[in-house]
């Protein structure tokens, strides 16, 4: 079951995402196994704040970018919200740490 982001910004509309208890380690690892998606997660981890999806500078088409962000969101790794005509993404690092202690840090350190 996908739910709205727990705390969307006051001026933004959250996109559906899985609840913490619904996130599976297999989904997370599968999503992070793709280089473009891993790059998105690395950028979000470095930024430590929401990023406009256009700021990633991805070298793939817009439809492919949209697909990668959707996979990350539906696997529970990121939360997304729309503000005006821009879409923002943020890493659900605290929630992932609660669900799978050390997993995200280990993947990012190994990458």
UniProtKB/TrEMBL annotation:
- A Pfam family cross-referenced in the UniProt record is HTH_20
PROSITE patterns named in the record: HTH_ARSR_2
Record carries keyword Secreted: no
Keyword field: DNA-binding, Transcription, Transcription regulation
HTH arsR-type domain spans which residues? Answer: 17-111
UniProt keyword annotation of Glycoprotein present: no
Q: Which InterPro entries match?
A: ArsR-like_HTH, HTH_ArsR_DNA-bd_dom, HTH_MetalResp_TranReg, WH-like_DNA-bd_sf, WH_DNA-bd_sf
Domain of life here? Answer: Bacteria
- Matching PANTHER family, A to Z? TRANSCRIPTIONAL REGULATOR, ARSR FAMILY, TRANSCRIPTIONAL REGULATORY PROTEIN
Descriptive protein name? ArsR/SmtB family transcription factor
Native source species: Saccharopolyspora rosea
């Amino acid at each position: 079951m996908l739910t709205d982001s727990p705390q969307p910004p006051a001026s933004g509309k959250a996109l559906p995402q899985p609840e913490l208890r619904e996130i599976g380690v297999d989904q997370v690892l599968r999503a992070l196994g793709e280089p473009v998606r891993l790059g998105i997660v690395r950028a979000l981890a470095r930024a430590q704040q929401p990023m406009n999806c256009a700021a990633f500078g991805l070298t793939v088409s817009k439809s492919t970018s949209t697909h990668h962000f959707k996979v990350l969101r539906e696997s529970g790794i990121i939360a997304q919200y729309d503000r005006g005509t821009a879409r923002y993404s943020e890493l659900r690092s605290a929630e992932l740490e609660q669900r799978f202690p050390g997993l995200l840090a280990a993947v990012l350190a190994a990458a």
